[in-house]
Prior knowledge:
It is a single chain. The protein is an alpha/beta fold. The protein is 36% helix and 21% strand. The chain is built from 14 helices and 19 strands. The structure holds magnesium ion. The site of magnesium ion (MG) has 6 residues, from loops.
Amino acid sequence: MTDLFGTFGIRGVTNEKVNPELAMKLGQALATHLDNEGKVAVGYDPRTSSEMIESAITSGLLSGGCDVLRLGMVPTPVLSFSTKNYSCDAGIMITASHNPPQYNGMKFWDEEGAGFIRDKEDELVEIYSGDKSEQVGWNELGKTEEVDAVKKYKNSLLEKVSEFDEELKVVVDCASGAGCVTTPYILRELGCHVVTLNSQVDGHFPGRLPEPTSEHLGDLKNAVKSMEADLGIAHDGDADRTIMVDENGEIVSGDRVFALAGINYLKDIDNPRIVTTVATSSVMDDVAEQLDGEIERTKVGEPELVEEYKKNGADLAGEENGGVIFTDWAMARDGMMTAVQIIDYMTRTGKTLSELSDTLPDYKQRKRKAECPNELKQDVLADLTKKFEDENPITKDGLRIEVEDGWYILRPSGTEPVFRCFSEAKTDEKSEELVRKGMDALRDSIEKVKNS
Ligand code: MG
């Protein structure tokens, strides 16, 4: 992995790491990567810096000979959809997803609307850092074109799904992010009574921060309860993820959203193949079993998921953060489709969201971390690998150790100087026991490596 790219795309503080010069050069690098021809879709979320970055990256693409399809302010799923459906050769989404407002970033997409896999990111970085970008002559410069991508996306999604069987009352909280232009309208067209919260586009994110964590969703929980709504929907800043609130005002976590949306979406598919990461809940193993399907686990990060389902196929992919990919609809996480699938599941079965969530096994999770300098991570991992070799851990990303009634994982963070330990089991006691076991081993290894 390069320093420029994180677990998915480039992120940083505006006018520090993410500035117009970087954007312009990356535009030129992508144009060179595309052999200085073709068309690139460019969209952005409503951050205060997004138009600045869009202008710079567009300038770089045009100078490198690529045409630019300007989508304007759109959710990330619309950028992915448009890259494929307007026959573009690549796409760029300007967004920092769930990060606070001072951040921005860029995510790159291939012609199928899938996120760049690591090899493609590496090629781009090689052109960018090696100053290998090529610019074209005055008579070969690219041209721009503007389209109403949101309209095309909405119509296409509405064609793909049928109207709901009953009118549910839904509170939609878009964090003032990009989902404001899609989700409330789509759900209303499909037959919901929609009430909106934080659904005016605003890059200051005045109502709540864009990360849809429980502590940011107090207003949504209260609104669902006080309005006696059937459910609440929360997106992150670019609306590729969905977290839900049930009719009692309780959060339905990302892995349960993934599971419920998946069960509904895969109901007519024989032996579905599901791709997820080593850090996702066992609830997905239960879903795969229930549907007579199979599950494959990859390293953490969307490029790793993409690589796996492009190589070996998948009917569904996703992560524990509420980002779900419905592969025969689009090659990217889609917060709108996720919401639609769960509401469809509710109205088809006549069950409330809490009742549906109760049909899934209840796992107790623990998430801890220990500080570990980046330069020691590999040695710590090597020491842990030796320690746990008799337990046959899954070693795709750190160590995932399966025990009879649970599992725990030890993995170095890709973004911070910490080593993480997650556990999951059917009881709180067992989950606590596993996380302690993991943390004891981890602290011991970190000490050992520090003193060696
Ligand atoms: Mg996102």
